[in-house]
Amino acid sequence: MALLREPLLLTFVFLACSPVSVSTSSNITDHGALMSFKSHVSMDPSGALVQWGNLSVPMCQWPGVACGLKGRRLGRVVALNLSGLILAGTITTALGNLTYLRQLDLSSNHFHGILPPKLGNLHDLETLVLSQNSIQGYIPPSLVNCSRLVIIALDTNKLQGELPSEFRSLQNLKQLYLDENSLTGKIPSSIGSIVSLKELVLQYNNLTGEIPIEIGSIVNLTVLSLGANQLSGTIPASLGNC
């Protein structure tokens, strides 16, 4: 009987440990993305990321990180909130691998560089808040792939170029803050297709041309701020529909 116990015991141990192994392996991608994020941070005066990577602290208990508690999101990163920590550095493209992420808030820091187009891989993303940084370059059209976005706040940065006309596909978007940047070109008429919008703030840019009459189609709009640009023409009567 003693000879039979060993293989049975090994089988039991294997079956007991297998689910843990699978669960752990499913988090490897998220862990790697967060560690890549940390490696791109050049200044962390408050030590907010010191515990990141510490083997004695589970990933889901790292400061600023929140994980799902059930279902397919169990143990996966669903929120990253590092607002107001005076972090400096660039935003790694690896954040696009956090495929279960719903909220990303890096506002009130000193991030520079460009917005990674791979953020468009975050199909579950609902809140994108990167306000008050020094982010440059263009707004990546790939953000249109984040069809669940409700809030986009990219204000008070150094963004350039035109507003992506592709944003018309973001039919869940309620708040769009792009003020205090260096955006140029016309306000695309396609913005009138985002009928879910309640707040549209584009002030303090270098936008030109006329105010699109299509904005009058956004009947739920409660905030419209277009001041401090180089707009011309007349105020469209269609705004009376809002």
What would CATH call the architecture?
A: Alpha-Beta Horseshoe
Number of separate strands:
15
Count of alpha/pi helices: 2
The structure class reads alpha/beta
Task: Give the biggest sheet.
Answer: 8 strands, mixed
The rounded distance between the terminal residues' Cα atoms is: 82 Å
Order of secondary-structure elements: HHEEEEEEEEEEEEEEE
* CATH superfamily (homologous) name: Ribonuclease Inhibitor
At CATH level 3, the topology is: Leucine-rich repeat, LRR (right-handed beta-alpha superhelix)
Return the average pLDDT rounded to an integer: 90
Could you describe the 3D structure shown?
The protein has 242 residues and is of the alpha/beta class. It has one domain: Ribonuclease Inhibitor (Leucine-rich repeat, LRR (right-handed beta-alpha superhelix), Alpha-Beta Horseshoe), CATH 3.80.10.10. Helices cover 15% and strands 20% of the residues. The chain is built from 2 helices and 15 strands. It has helices spanning 2-26, 28-39; strands at 41-43, 65-67, 77-81, 88-90, 103-105, 110-114, 127-129, 134-136, 151-153, 175-177, 184-186, 199-201, 206-209, 223-225, 230-231. It has an 8-stranded mixed β-sheet with strand order 2-3-5-7-9-10-12-14, with no helix packed on it. The protein has a 4-stranded mixed β-sheet with strand order 1-4-6-8. It is elongated. The termini are far apart.
